[in-house]
Design brief:
The chain has seven helices and ten strands. It is of the alpha/beta class. The protein starts with a strand and ends with a helix.
Length: 212
Amino acid sequence: MHTVRCKICGITRPEDGRLAADLGADALGLVFFSGSKRCVNIEQAQAIVRVLPPFVSVVGLFVNEKADTINHILESVPIDVLQFHGNEEADFCRQFHRPYLKAVRVQNRQAIQAALTNYPDAKALLFDAFMAGEYGGTGHAFDWQMLPEKMTQAWILSGGLNVDNLAQALQQTGAQAVDVSSGVEREAGIKDAQKMAQFLSICRQFSVQAAQ
């Protein structure tokens, strides 16, 4: 069966993290970027990770952060995958010896092709909407028609996804993995239980349809 994987990003509270996991999220994102409304510190991150069941991946999100700071966080919080949302080059991303995702703020097709060329060892590329001065969690989608018909490596659809447009997004793009933050919130950093449940249900429903 084809399963659409789902990461719920911007978790700031242990109860939201546990509920997202119980509802079926494959991965949870912790934001370590001070410019984000969803930023967590080490103590908050530890409290969230502590309540998670086994086999739920923890993704740490960074934006143009210093390597020393990232290493300090990695020593303190059990993070499985790194996500880089800034202008980090591949050499920087791979130095931490963990699988990494490279976010691409999509302005045009050239940005996608450049990322495919420049980050060949990324676990996946994450395609997000471009908003000047913003690094994810904007609630805006990009033009999905800019995505190539054939992708040479794993990728994740992000940017403005919610319960109202997810089915269309999956149908149009064929995405096998999605990332959502603001689309399942009551307010920045506070997740909405019903929206998370609906979002993950659509992922599962679409998986069944895709397998038929």
